[in-house]
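Quick one, probably user error.
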C-alpha cells in the first residue's frame, strides 16, 4: 500500500503555489486569490477526512462499511463546501466574485477525482475475490 497523503499534499501545495504566484493575473480577470486559497484548504481537509474514512472502512469485512464511508466522505465534502460557499456569498455581498466560485467548483471536481483515484489505487485487486 502506498501513502495516499503524498499525492494529495502535492496537489494542495501545487495549487497554493500557483494561486500565490499568479494572484496579480487572477485579480486582472476578476478571480480573488483569497477565495481560491480558502477553497483549496477546505477541499484538502475534506478530501483527507473522506479518504481516511474510506481506507479505514476497506479493512472492514462488512461490504456495507465501504459504501457508508464513501457516502460519508462525499457528504462531508459536498455539505462542507456548500456551507462555505453560502457563508462567502452572504458575507461578500455585492463584492462577491462569481468567477472565483466557478474556479473553486473546478477545484472541487479535481479533489473528488483525486480522492477516487487514490482510493482505487489503495484497493487495487486483480479480480473481485479476496
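Nope, works fine. Designed sequence:
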Amino acid at each position: 500500500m502506498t501513502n495516499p497523503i503524498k499525492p494529495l499534499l502535492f496537489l494542495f501545495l501545487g495549487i497554493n503555489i500557483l494561486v500565490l504566484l499568479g494572484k496579480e493575473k487572477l485579480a486582472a480577470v476578476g478571480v480573488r486569490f483569497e477565495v481560491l486559497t480558502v477553497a483549496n484548504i477546505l477541499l484538502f481537509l475534506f478530501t483527507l477526512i473522506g479518504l481516511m474514512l474510506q481506507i479505514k472502512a476497506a479493512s472492514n469485512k462488512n461490504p456495507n462499511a465501504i459504501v457508508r464511508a464513501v457516502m460519508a466522505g462525499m457528504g462531508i465534502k459536498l455539505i462542507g463546501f456548500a456551507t462555505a460557499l453560502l457563508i462567502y456569498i452572504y458575507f461578500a455581498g455585492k463584492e462577491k466574485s462569481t468567477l472565483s466560485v466557478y474556479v473553486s467548483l473546478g477545484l472541487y471536481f479535481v479533489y473528488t477525482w483525486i480522492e477516487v483515484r487514490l482510493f482505487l489505487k489503495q484497493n487495487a485487486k486483480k479480480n473481485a475475490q479476496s
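The helical segments are 5-21, 23-28, 33-58, 63-92, 98-122.
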